[in-house]
Amino acid sequence: MDSGPELERVLRSLEEAAEFAKTYRFEMTDDYLALIARVEAMPQNQSGTDKSGRWRGSRAHAAFLAARATLLPRRT
Amino acid sequence: MTHPLVPLAGALAQRSVRYVLIGVSGANLYGPSGQAVFTTDDLDLFVPPDPTNLERAWAACDDVQLELWLTEEPLERPRDRWLAERIVERCALTRATGPDDLLVDFTLVMKGFEFETVWKERRTFTIEGVPVPTARLLHIVTSKQAAGRPKDQYFLATHKDALEQLLKKPDVD
Lengths: 76, 173
Prior knowledge:
The complex is a heterodimer of chains A (76) and B (173). Chain A has 76 residues and is mainly alpha-helical. In chain A, 55% of the residues lie in helices and 0% in strands. Chain B has helices at 6-14, 23-28, 51-63, 81-89, 115-120, 137-147, 150-168, and strands at residues 20-22, 43-46, 67-70, 73-74, 94-98, 102-107, 123-127, 130-134. In chain B, the strands form 2 sheets. In chain B, strands 1-2-6-5-3-4 form a 6-stranded mixed β-sheet. The radius of gyration of chain B is 16 Å and the shape is globular. Chain B is an alpha+beta fold and 173 residues long. Classes of the chains: A mainly alpha (76), B alpha+beta (173). Chains A and B meet through helix 1, helix 2 and helix 3 of A and strand 7, helix 6 and helix 7 of B.
């Protein structure tokens, strides 16, 4: 399988994201501040809430899994 | 499966170290468990300009066998008050590293904020039963905006979208 075009597409989108980040200026609008206030006010975002599940999917989690993964031969 | 911060957070609590989790790792805690987590290489812990507190933070790292670094060099010993005072004077960052690419930065600087402001309004979440003082989401995003680095701008834009999605969900978490 030729992964070239897919890789090309991914690299292009990364370059575009980097370009966007260079020129983009995020604005702290009133709407945005209201959004933040709503998220902070959620019951699950109050002190004492258990956040044990919040790291799954993170890079640290991926490293954790990778360190413990055992590669098995592919079944044919 | 233990969260990478848990052993250190436990040791920091044991030694009554004052800190708040900031940065992307802190912002991640405000989303529901099913939501995508923004990836980050490190965990940023904001500490006050207090040498005694910093000394205790280093001791907590020793308790859980983390390595300590100052820039690219191992943090020299003895890790005493004299050294902590020099680090605080220079607002230098000390980094702890450990298993599974764990990378924790003890920073004395959070752009746009004094420690006491952030500390006063912190949320203390728990992870696997261990308290994790976390900066308000408002403080995290405001600081990122103030820092103005391209990666922060990009994070803020994508994070805003994620928060909007979160609020659209009828049943979050």
